[in-house]
């Protein structure tokens, strides 16, 4: 028995006013994992995120297979403790006057029981909230946030190993929609016990109760029976097999099968069966199909991509009912369903094609992914678009939902126009010019400048430099700069052995070259141009100039360059000998394989580094904290005051240890690359 709100209109007006005031604060109070009754969050995204996570159930963790726990709360609204609710509101910072208003609203309720048409009793409730009222769902969400925060706190517990997910994806160990909760964990015994401790603490404080008879655990079908028995023993919850039904949609990790959608087909047929035998005109059947029946599959088609067989089956059911007024009718179909789905303005019925509806829903899904920041969109971006932008990422592998989204991307992306305004549009991948993404407008032989991320970068920094100078440093840097700025132009009429200068350069640079000579030959044009320019000026002012002197100076310059790059190497003076030496040069390298090691169970590993330019000079530090499975806990890199290399290394260590202390980590494995500081710390 559940208390139903039969209050008068004045009471519901007060409830609505409080709800509207309270709902403005919910996005800042409720965790992202909860998607119920909040503006900007959708039940669709919760189902999509659940499906994406379970798709990776094969990814084993360091301690064993993955486990999905689907919870069922026993009469969640009825059992909620008022004392727990007031403590929770006070903990979240609500003023006492507001809390008192809430208590007066939910505590001043009296009930009577209607038995055989007569009212019996008149008693006051002591816990729970009414259903059918605007405010109670909001209060229940605030109460359920306690469980969400308890589960989220497990991410900082070194003994908890979560569900195996793609690298760099957001850490998620549960998803909730009001009282429908799914928990993601590994099959590790310690992890499962920590999850059950959170649930037991929530039950004891809020008077909520997990119905373990209706709850279920789900594992991969290849999981060992020993692991399954262990999970059932720790959780006291029985195992069920996929597909799992969550918020009315089938969730599975294997290939799509038509029998996963039998529930949808049965629901449509049962709805039509209630109209069987009733005298409905053709117009009545049109209204029933268009406004009622075709709306039933919308929710499921928004979050899953049913096989073509399922969509065709639904349309076949609609067509049979339209032509024969019953589900199993065999009347003659005077027109195909495709023609019936043509617009009414063109002389047809105007039904909606479910294939077109599916495309439209996934186009909307792509639009939400591109424009609406959410936990689901962040997870999808990290899972599929880590290396490439979502506009150009190709299909490789993933869920059938992601594949359908990429198919609809080609239909909708060129229809999306981004107004520059604040300049947040992506410069290369967003259609902010109304000509399409610039990435597709640039010819294949040209590259794109990845330094320009958005339109604002171009507005503030302007166009990048058109030319890149070679990475060499010689004494005559000014001469090189002038050469690459096109200030020194070669005079016309220069010829070499009957060839023009352009022909001679082309002949030289198209010849095959040993790869080891590339660094030398890349710097050679600059040296030649500079020496020729100096000799040209000497000749202009009537100084003696000889060809041998020019060649000698160029050889000396190239020798200096090689000595600068190869310290301690004996470089011959002659040009041909220098080339021969470079062709035969093989550096002596000493390789030592260094691998990142996982810390022991219950420990964290901290890597730090520091460096400065000039020693002393501008200093920077970096630190990285990872848990026992290698997942990133915290990372930081920033500039500090000027100092030496050792000082920056020491500052990095101190900052890392401070951060570990703030995060309550005391079992620390510190790894640094400074032998001096290592010896100092050990002493």
UniProtKB/TrEMBL annotation:
<dbReference type="InterPro" id="IPR036397">
    <property type="entry name" value="RNaseH_sf"/>
</dbReference>
<feature type="domain" description="RNase H type-1">
    <location>
        <begin position="600"/>
        <end position="683"/>
    </location>
</feature>
<dbReference type="InterPro" id="IPR044730">
    <property type="entry name" value="RNase_H-like_dom_plant"/>
</dbReference>
<dbReference type="InterPro" id="IPR000477">
    <property type="entry name" value="RT_dom"/>
</dbReference>
<dbReference type="Pfam" id="PF00078">
    <property type="entry name" value="RVT_1"/>
</dbReference>
<dbReference type="Pfam" id="PF13456">
    <property type="entry name" value="RVT_3"/>
</dbReference>
<feature type="domain" description="Reverse transcriptase">
    <location>
        <begin position="1"/>
        <end position="251"/>
    </location>
</feature>
<protein>
    <submittedName>
        <fullName>Uncharacterized protein LOC104225779</fullName>
    </submittedName>
</protein>
<dbReference type="GO" id="GO:0003676">
    <property type="term" value="F:nucleic acid binding"/>
</dbReference>
<dbReference type="InterPro" id="IPR002156">
    <property type="entry name" value="RNaseH_domain"/>
</dbReference>
<dbReference type="GO" id="GO:0004523">
    <property type="term" value="F:RNA-DNA hybrid ribonuclease activity"/>
</dbReference>
<dbReference type="InterPro" id="IPR012337">
    <property type="entry name" value="RNaseH-like_sf"/>
</dbReference>
């Amino acid at each position: 028995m559940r208390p139903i709100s039969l209050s008068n209109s004045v009471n519901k007006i007060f409830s609505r006013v409080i709800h509207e005031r309270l709902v403005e604060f919910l996005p800042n109070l409720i965790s992202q994992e909860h998607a119920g009754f909040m503006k900007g969050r959708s039940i669709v995204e919760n189902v999509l995120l659940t499906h994406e996570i379970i798709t990776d159930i094969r990814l084993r963790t360091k301690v064993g297979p993955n486990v999905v726990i689907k919870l069922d709360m026993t009469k969640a609204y009825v059992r909620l403790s008022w004392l727990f609710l007031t403590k929770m509101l006070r903990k979240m910072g609500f003023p006492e006057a507001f809390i008192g208003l809430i208590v007066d609203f939910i505590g001043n309720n009296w009930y009577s029981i209607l038995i055989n048409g007569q009212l019996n009793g008149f008693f006051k409730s002591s816990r729970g909230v009414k259903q059918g009222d605007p405010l109670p769902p909001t209060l229940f969400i605030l109460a359920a946030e306690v469980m969400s925060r308890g589960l989220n706190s497990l991410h900082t517990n070194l003994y908890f190993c979560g569900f195996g997910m793609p690298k760099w994806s957001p850490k998620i160990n549960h998803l909730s929609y009001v009282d429908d909760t799914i928990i993601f964990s590994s099959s590790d015994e310690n992890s499962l016990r920590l999850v059950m401790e959170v649930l037991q603490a929530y039950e004891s404080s809020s008077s909520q109760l997990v119905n373990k008879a209706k709850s279920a655990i789900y594992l991969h079908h290849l999981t060992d029976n020993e692991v399954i028995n262990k999970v059932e023993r720790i959780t006291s919850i029985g195992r069920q097999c996929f597909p799992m039904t969550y918020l009315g949609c089938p969730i599975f990790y294997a290939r799509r099968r038509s029998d996963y959608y039998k529930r949808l087909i049965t629901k449509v047929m049962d709805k039509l069966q209630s109209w069987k035998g009733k005298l409905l005109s053709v117009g009545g059947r049109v209204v029933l199909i268009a406004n009622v029946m075709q709306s039933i599959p919308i929710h499921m088609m928004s979050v899953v991509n049913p096989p073509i067989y399922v969509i065709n089956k639904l349309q076949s059911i609609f067509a049979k009912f339209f032509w024969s007024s019953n589900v199993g009718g065999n009347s003659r179909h005077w027109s195909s369903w495709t023609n019936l789905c043509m617009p009414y303005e063109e002389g047809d019925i105007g039904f909606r094609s479910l294939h077109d509806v599916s495309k439209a829903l996934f186009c909307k899904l792509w639009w939400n992914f591109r424009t609406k920041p959410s936990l689901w969109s962040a997870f999808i971006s990290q899972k599929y678009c880590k290396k490439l932008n979502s506009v150009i990422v190709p299909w490789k592998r993933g869920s059938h939902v992601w594949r359908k989204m990429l198919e609809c991307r080609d239909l909708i992306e060129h229809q999306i126009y981004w107004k520059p305004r604040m300049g947040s549009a992506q410069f290369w991948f967003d259609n902010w010019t109304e000509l399409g993404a610039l990435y597709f407008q640039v010819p294949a032989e040209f590259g794109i400048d990845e330094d320009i991320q958005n339109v604002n970068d171009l507005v503030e920094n302007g166009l990048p430099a058109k030319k890149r100078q070679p990475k060499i440093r010689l004494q005559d840097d000014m001469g090189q700069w002038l050469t690459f700025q096109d200030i020194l132009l070669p005079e016309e009429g220069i010829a070499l052995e009957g060839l023009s200068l352009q022909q001679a350069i082309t002949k030289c640079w198209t010849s095959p070259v040993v790869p080891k000579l590339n660094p030398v030959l890349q710097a050679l044009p600059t040296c030649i141009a500079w020496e020729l320019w100096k000799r040209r000026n000497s000749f202009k002012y009537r100084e003696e100039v000889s060809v041998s002197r020019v060649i000698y100076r160029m050889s000396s310059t190239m020798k200096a360059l090689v000595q600068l790059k190869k310290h301690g190497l004996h470089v011959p003076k002659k040009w041909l000998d220098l080339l021969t030496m470079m062709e035969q040069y093989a550096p002596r390298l000493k390789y030592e394989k260094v691998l990142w090691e996982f810390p022991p169970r219950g420990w964290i590993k901290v890597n730090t580094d520091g460096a400065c330019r000039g020693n002393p000079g501008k200093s920077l530090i970096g630190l990285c904290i990872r848990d026992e499975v290698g997942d990133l806990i915290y990372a930081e890199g920033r500039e500090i005051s000027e100092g030496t290399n050792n000082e920056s290394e020491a500052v990095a260590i101190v900052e890392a240890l401070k951060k570990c202390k703030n995060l309550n980590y005391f079992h620390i494995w510190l790894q640094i690359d400074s032998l001096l500081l290592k010896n100092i710390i050990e002493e």
